[in-house]
Amino acid sequence: MAVSIGQPLESTIETNGTAYSFDEDPPDMPGLKKSNERFRLPHITDLFPDIVPKYSTFSTKSSCLIRGNVQGPLRAKELGKMFVDDRDRVLLKVIRYAHASSSGAECLNDDCTFEHWWLSRAGPRSHIYFEPTEVNAAIVTCGGLCPGLNDVIRQIALTLTTYGVTDVKGIAYGYKGFIDEKIRDIDLTPQSVATIHLMGGSILGSSRGNSKTSEIVDNIEKRGTNMLFVIGGNGSHAGAMAIHQECFKRKLKVAVVGVPKTIDNDILLMDKTFGFDTAVEEAQRAIKAAYIEAASAYHGVGVVKLMGRQSGFIAMYASLASGQVDCCLIPEVHFSLDGPNGVYEHMKTVINRKGHCLVVIAEGAGQDLVAGEGGTDASGNPILADIGQWFVKQAKKHFKEVGFPAEFKYIDPTYMIRATPANASDGILCSVLGQNAVHAAFGGYTGVTVGLVNTHYCLLPIPEVIREARNVDPDSRMWHRCLTSTGQPDFSPPHVESN
Ligand SMILES: Nc1ncnc2c1ncn2[C@@H]1O[C@H](COP(=O)(O)OP(=O)(O)OP(=O)(O)O)[C@@H](O)[C@H]1O
Ligand SMILES: O=P(O)(O)OC[C@H]1O[C@](O)(CO)[C@@H](O)[C@@H]1O
Ligand SMILES: [Mg+2]
User: Fold this and answer.
1) InterPro entries attached here (predicted)?
2) Which residue is closest in CA terms to ligand 1's atom 31?
């Protein structure tokens, strides 16, 4: 039997995306059944089916906490549209490609049959699975820094307070803070977090490596933590998932919720992650400086290195935003330096035409050309060779050898960019993600993360967003737009047919 959406709040409590009981998809929601399987969100009731949730203590209509059962069915009409229904869904994809050859098309067949994938909507639920006074919450930031970390920490702490939680701890220096007894927790109160978003970095500190799941969960158990918020990238999310699974294995009632942090924007399925916009904006200062230096020198060449270990989103968007960039090199697109279609030839053409040239290079670009440093960091991420310095050295050598005068100015603003506070648009993204992480935990969800998908905030199962790193698709409209802006040719080395 198909169940229609939009039942009033008084209806029976529905949770966990399984609320639709049907033999076939509702007529207006093709693909719902398979979406509910693929994007099923783990829920506390999977482990404790007998938990009876209570009416939410969260309200935007009351300036004081709503306690006990005051907010019963009688108040449902009054509270009106304040809550998100567990059955609300957001479409993952919205373009219906006519053919697989359409730019950016990802299709299962030549006709590009449209697939409906429905995601769960994030937001406050009418019923909660934790008694706020019994919540012992912990927040941890792991991996590299990113603009907006403090905004997320702040908003999680403030939203928890809104529900009536009084025990919120910051775990210092990433997962290490759970394991190393010498590392002290940081008390997070509305007062202590009030202005932290005005600063870059993370007031909790961060780290890589050192994350033995069983030891972390031992510590979670010892402290009695029952809500854990992990702000981090794909590695941190893999860690969060492992913690969630270990908690389930030990039958611990702990909600583990992630907030994706990646300046590189390399998390799957999401429109963008926080810190990315700020990075693109902050990169403009370096690009502009490099442009001015290059344009003020005879045959000046400005080179700017930007972050992007495996994904060139920052370099691509920053180049597009600048409009001054003549050559953008990213990890996803191989390039050759020499030859008629190589980077050097393009640079010479641009210099001959304009008198100067501007190159943006992502840190992960051209790693096949430069001899790598080899090895991995504490978390197992590859340690990259410095492509920026290498490129400038090689290019200088080349131009000297061919007798083409050129003056190079190199800027590496990577850590300056990473340490800046979030801009306004990231500030909003961080705040909404932080709030939604808390709503997810109170709604009983665990092993989930929050993200912006097609401009709507969604809850996603962690494994779906960290299956692999999200990359720039060289066939995408955005990369083609970047190429249209830089005017660079296809630098790919010529394809050699093998016998
Ligand atoms: N597969 C995994 N399982 C459990 N923990 C992991 C896993 N991968 C990484 N971690 C842990 O997650 C933390 C952060 O990982 P990592 O340093 O890779 O940063 P990240 O979250 O991916 O962010 P960034 O985008 O800055 O790399 C580390 O403490 C690391 O040990
Ligand atoms: O210097 P760290 O902390 O190893 O981080 C560098 C890496 O972190 C990132 O900023 C991702 O967080 C990558 O762009 C970069 O390769
Ligand atoms: Mg990572």
Assistant:
1) ATP_PFK (IPR022953), PFKA (IPR050929), Phosphofructokinase_dom (IPR000023), PKF_sf (IPR035966), PyroP-dep_PFK_TP0108 (IPR012004)
2) 209
Place of tokens 């080899």: 374
Where residue 398 sits, what CATH number does that domain have? 3.40.50.460
User: Is there a single domain that holds both residue 303 and residue 408?
Assistant: yes
**CATH classification of the domain holding 256:** 3.40.50.450
Which residue range(s) make up the domain with 179? Answer: 121-273+422-453
Alpha carbon of 3 to those of 20, 80, 88: distances in Å? 6, 21, 12
**Does some domain include residue 312?**
yes
Ligand nearest to the CA of 307: 2
**H-assigned helices in 299-378:** 313-322, 343-354
Residues 284 and 408 in one domain: yes
ipTM: 0.98
Confirm whether residue 374 is marked as ligand binding.
Answer: no
Strand partners, 382: 376
The reply to whether 328 falls in a domain is yes
- With bands split at pLDDT 50, 70 and 90, how would you rate the model's confidence at 3? very low
Q: Which residues of 115-149 are buried (b: 16+ CB within 10 A; e: fewer)?
A: eebbbbbbbbbbbbbbebeebbbbbbbbbbbbbbb
The model's pLDDT over 82-105, given as tens digits with 9 standing for 90+, comes to 899 999 999 999 999 998 888 888
pTM above threshold 0.90: yes
User: In which element (H, E) is residue 257 found?
Assistant: strand 255-260
56 touches 128 (CB < 8 A):
yes
pLDDT digits (tens, 9 = 90+) for 387-420: 999 999 999 999 999 999 999 999 999 999 999 9
Q: How many domains does the chain have?
A: 2
Just list the catalytic residues: 264
Task: Look at residue 47 and tell me if it is in a domain.
Answer: no
Supply the mean pLDDT for the chain.
Answer: 91
- Ramachandran bin of 365, using left for φ above 0, alpha for ψ from -120 to 50, beta for the remaining angles: beta
Same domain? For 221 and 237 the reply is yes
- Assess whether the C-beta atom of 235 lies below 6 angstroms from ligand 1: yes
Residues 190 and 280 in one domain: no
Does 442 lie in the same domain as 392? no
Q: Is 81 domain-assigned?
A: no
Distance 240 CA to ligand 1 centre (A): 9
What is the tens place of the pLDDT at every residue in 302-317? Answer: 999 999 999 999 999 9
Contact 43, 16 (CB under 8 A): yes
The pLDDT of 221-228, averaged and rounded, is 97
274 phi and psi, to 5 degrees? -65, 150
Does one domain contain both 220 and 250?
yes
Rounded Cα gap, residues 197 and 462, in angstroms:
26
Contacts of 28 (CB under 8 A, 6+ apart): none
Taking the centre of ligand 2 as the mean of its atom positions, its distance from the CA of residue 425, in whole angstroms, is: 22
